[in-house]
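Hi R.,

Here's the chain you asked about this morning:
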Amino acid sequence: QCPMPPPASSAAAAPRGNEPAAELLPAVEPAGARLELQAYNPRTLEALQARAQELPNPMLPSTYGRRPRLIYLVRLALGFVLVVPRVLLFLLCCLAASACAKLTVLGIPREDVVSRPLSRSRKAILFGVRFFCRASLWSLGYLWVRTSGRPAPRARAPIIVANHRGFVDAVWLYWACESLSFVSAAEHLHIPVLSSLVVSGQTILVRRAEAESRARARAEIRRYATSSEPMPQVVIFPEGTVTNGQAIVSFKNGAFEPGTAVQPVLLRFPHRDLDPSWTYGNGSIPSLLARMCANPWNRLHVEYLEPLEPSSEERADATLFARRVRSAMANGLGVPFTEHTAEDTLLQGLGIARGLPADAGVVEFGALQEAYGLTRFLAKALLAEYARILTVAAGARAKAAARLSLSAWMSELRKLEPDAAAATALLEGLEEVYARLGRGRDADGAEHVGLTLREWMLALLDLRAMGGVTEASEMAMRQLAWLNAAGAHNATVPRADAVRLLAAVVERTSLAEELCTHAKVNGADPNAKAAPNASLTHGDFVKAAIAHPAVFVAAFASDAAADAAAARARAAPAPANA
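And here is the predicted structure, written out as tokens:
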């Protein structure tokens, strides 16, 4: 939660700068849903910045930005002759596995496949799927796989958890364990060949964007894990995304909520030049497969740890169990754990689509969420705004480098913030936060080193957390509140939504209507009733928020505002070129 600015007094309606008093709102105090106050810790910013310098980035291939060795390029060139036969063999194995999968569930309605265990005869056919899975890995150069430990039977560990590097993880586990089911995205049902494997594997499907679907998936995991029938073991990648294996990232709780024993499995892919991780920045999937096939052999080490039983406290709180398992896996792999999440992968993809490099969108979302209350919707809006400012104010070169200079940021803020009299104080506040992030002026007084997306988010979130005690803090509160409620600076908030949000703060719909009217919605006459379909623009909001931050910032920074903006985004028609 962001802190609420100091309550507006009657003096708050006084003009600022050269702004006419007639354009300001009537005095009003917030009465209803206030934002929760939290103590501001000035050390949080420096601690998070230092953390980024110390920890590895697990969302990029370990070879990212590194020139390949000459010997590796020679080996790839010599191994090019292997690509065609290996790719053909891989495709043949995929088709054969798909055929066996279809035969396994022949005659069973799709909705009934997950409701009960497969018969012994169908499981015998399923062995063909497992065999061709192993053959497909052989075709990709995984000729020998070193293992330690043994897969535990379902009676000892109904759930298996593993770190996630790419599709090889799932293929190997499917071969190595007798009867497995996975938790997978529902979109995989629409991919040829893979869809039949998903169905025959009694996969638990989930649509991540839908809360109802996530709840159903959690219920299915619990049913599989606790059923007295011989249901398959459930394999879950609790990180919820792929990484490069240099750290264990945040765990989702779904694997630990049933309160049953879990068996951690550690997957390592030793390499110097070819990182098989399916992360952004590692090329396209076809190119990665081609490089695997051109490599004479690839290496995979699999370690099965002993199953871990939850304590009574951990059964009551799945987060505690998840933390213990996560710590055991990080220790086993000899890597740190970070607070990166699947949202970092989402931001990476959105950033690449807007012309940013693959590393720009990695912000360690979980750490920013815990420290400053960052939400997924606001993070997406901030990324879009960062890319926009780089394009408009900084140019293509700065966008490619993903660095936002102070001069470029101030140039854009002068357009967004109409209070010119506060520009000097705003500049001083931003210079201070640049310096705290270690991006102050060079020794010769040259321009500030630009901020990355993560640093820019940190700057705005930390300024917001100050609670409006400086011009820069007030600016950050306004800008973040608007992005939270609108999603972009050039977007608008429908009058009906604005009234509803304001009414939650002032507890009177009539007063909320009056506030919208006095905010000059779409430039309307303050003495005239605005049209029902009028919208609040960013300029309208800034003027209103300067006059009464305790009302407008609190209303537009609320969770309800973000939910309404997300709903409008989902309902908006897709672009013609999408």
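One quick note: The beta strands are 145-148, 159-162, 180-185, 204-206, 233-236, 262-268, 300-304, 493-494, 535-536.

Cheers,
M.
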